[in-house]
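User: Fold this, then the next.

Assistant: Folding the first:
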Amino acid sequence: MSGEATDTPRPGAAGVFADTTAAPVVTRSPSAEAASTGMAPDPFALLADWLPANDDPARPLMTLSTVASSGYPDARTVLLSEFGPEGLYFHTDSRSRKVLDVTATPRAALTMVWPGRQLVVQGDVSRASAEEQTAAYGRRSRYLQMLAWLNTDDFAALPLEERLATWAAFGEQHPDGSLEAPGTWAGFVVSPVRITFWEGRPDTAGIRTEFTRASGAGDSWGCGVIAG
């Protein structure tokens, strides 16, 4: 165990060890737009400005918070696979605790943080379509495609030397472009009911612009500015 802690990630693990924390260039301020027009901006148009495009290979990291069967909250970091009018997507192993959580209680929160900005999405969770799951796997880096096959408790329990050898052998047996999603590959979409954009400033207090979906009103959203 002592030798493992000093090992650094090897190159090529795109999507995990790449700089996914870099903030995209933002041109729209939710609070400024609400103040200048007196009308609520479209929250999904703001999401499109705050988040990288779906075809950007550097996917942002986000904290996925769920409610465990114990009643305690749980949280872990996942990649934002893509987003659209239906919600924000993430993909994971169907045997994971997060899947158990959202299956039992299909509600979750997503949090993304950049310097001076924060985005929190609260919503209902549902399973992504088979077509979307297949497409999302195809867009994953080679490292993440292999990880979807090998990331098991049994693999984690192996000594480092065996993990390295098993990983290398699996890569040799499955050339780049030959892998399909394993049966444990699962995708989910978080359909927002509340979206909160936090904007910070060094010269005054930060503020939050919060959008809340109106119950039973389709795509109608309420908007308010609250303390940060």
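Now the next one, as you asked:
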Amino acid sequence: MRHKDENKIKAIDEAVIDLFMAEGAQNVSISKIAKRAGVSQATIYIYYADKEAMLSHVYLGIKELFDGELFAHVDTTSSVKVQLVTILTNFVHASLRHPREAFVMQSVNDNPSLVSEDAFAAGLQQSKQLGVLYQRALKEDIIRDISPALVVGFTFQPLRFLVTDAYRREQQLADAEVSTAIEMCWNAIKA
């Protein structure tokens, strides 16, 4: 059996991320990835069965990175608001630290057909702590009785816009601006 070269896998994964940023998900092709990674197209097929498998692998790696940071330092015994503020703050900081990866993750979230159904489901499973928090918030009548999609729409999406805008303008986000935005998100969903 052929030995898998971790450096080649990393180069391929980085090429995928670079191309998502430079050309958008719809223009990512195996030939462009191979060229950007400095490998042959045949090499890509040693590591991945097809483009979907490759994008699924990249997505799950990014999801693991983000969810690890998203739930860092979250005390599940603290109030729903404290937990959510911590998660949202972590989301902003992770997105600012990893803007390219955040772009890929959002592209997949906007168009799940880019990856396999199993990969997308696994990505959602990694975020199950959010579902637990959502159920607790509803049970304790802390947030409005709205769907999870609306909760995400009024919390993560405005913050994603704020981070993306700062990235495009090549400007830093002040902590006070982040705190204000998160407080506005909380106010939009609280009961």
